[in-house]
Amino acid sequence: MLRIAVPNKGTLSKPASDMLREAGYRQRGDDRDLVCVDADNGVEFFYLRPRDIAVYVGSGDLDLGITGQDLLVDSGAPVSELLPLGFAPATFRFAAPPETVRDVPDLAGRRIATAYPGVVERFLADHEIKADVVRLDGAVENAVRLGVADVIADVVATGGTLRQAGLVPVGEPILVSEAVLVGRPEGERNGAVNQLLRRLQGVLVARRYVMLAYDVRADRLEGAVALTPGIESPTVSPLHREGWVAVQAMVMRTEVHRIMDELYDLGARAILVTDIHACRL
Ligand SMILES: Nc1ncnc2c1ncn2[C@@H]1O[C@H](COP(=O)(O)OP(=O)(O)OP(=O)(O)O)[C@@H](O)[C@H]1O
Ligand SMILES: O=P(O)(O)OC[C@H]1O[C@H](OP(=O)(O)OP(=O)(O)O)[C@H](O)[C@@H]1O
Ligand SMILES: [Mg+2]
Fold first, then answer.
1. What does the pLDDT look like over 207-218, one tens digit per residue?
2. Boundaries of each Histidine biosynthesis HisG C-terminal domain copy (predicted)?
């Protein structure tokens, strides 16, 4: 059986389980369950702290896992990213009170509070900066106010927590992160692993694309197809009405309204959009 680690709590937990459910896997019914067996698909899910997931996968005790790229870097575990999953986007950055630490070289000699010492120490080593890393568990934005540190390094999503703590970012983001599927670098890509990858890729495509259908005069077809080239090629079928065709193509969800307006201007009619629930490309 394939053994997969899924975040048990926190930001990654619900979107990870939702995505697996959308991909057709059974997920736990109770937030306190720590294991869920999906016998039909030959998969066993283990619910673990996202921070620990790369460690279990790196040691070979579990085959695959879902975690954050920043947590992965922090762990230093020997695992590979197999697929970015498109949720839990965040940056990881330094922040300090305004006008105190202006840029990265100013970090030298400072006390930096963080729950991600691995990420911070690697950054400091790469930039040949000597500073003291103060390892905290969370709520690190408070560390400056309380006098424990001069600077923090933490996850920034909306930036709301930084603003409320009266801190401003220092320098560019240290890294950009999202949820990822991880596995061992030398891990076997057997049937079950490839099936999971195809299913998750199917969910990503189903979320990013919609199906667009419309009717257009045959003499306008080339212009319409240029707007909706699809992924492979659009489907074109004859209509009963002489001189008209029906077209079907996948388009990016974020582009669909612009494309519909342009198709309408081109003379297309009966332009319909439908969601894709699942797919294998
Ligand atoms: N607003 C956010 N807050 C925290 N983590 C976030 C946020 N947005 C995305 N993430 C990502 O989620 C992962 C952190 O998840 P984790 O469960 O460890 O922390 P958490 O959601 O803050 O939970 P906890 O309550 O344990 O602090 C990281 O990969 C991080 O980049
Ligand atoms: O940019 P924002 O949208 O404000 O989100 C980022 C904040 O959210 C997380 O904190 P969390 O609520 O998980 O508390 P914690 O520090 O105790 O982990 C993270 O550690 C930041 O503090
Ligand atoms: Mg947190």
1. 999 999 999 999
2. 206-277
Q: Give the position, in ligand 1's atom list, of the atom nearest the Cα of 11.
A: 21
**What is residue 185's predicted lDDT score, i.e. its pLDDT?**
82
Tokens 């979320």 sit at which residue? 207
DSSP 21-48: HHTT----SSTT--EEEEGGGTEEEEEE
pLDDT digits (tens, 9 = 90+) for 11-51: 999 999 999 999 999 999 999 999 999 999 999 999 999 99
For the chain, which domains are there?
2-87+178-187 (3.40.190.10), 90-177 (3.40.190.10), 209-275 (3.30.70.120)
Is 10 close to ligand 1, i.e. is its CB under 6 Å away?
yes
Cα-to-chain-centroid distance, residue 230: 24
How many angstroms separate the alpha carbon of residue 224 from the centre of ligand 1?
44
Residue nearest to atom 19 of ligand 1 (CA): 10
103 CB-contact burial (10 Å; exposed 0-12 / middle 13-18 / buried 19+): exposed
Atom of ligand 2 nearest to the CA of 156: 1
- Terminus-to-terminus CA distance in the chain, angstroms? 26
- How far apart are the CA of 145 and the centre of ligand 2, in A? 16
If you take atom 13 of ligand 1, which residue's CA is the nearest one? Answer: 68
Nearest ligand to residue 92 Cα? 1
How far is the C-alpha of 247 from the C-alpha of 263, rounded, in Å? 11
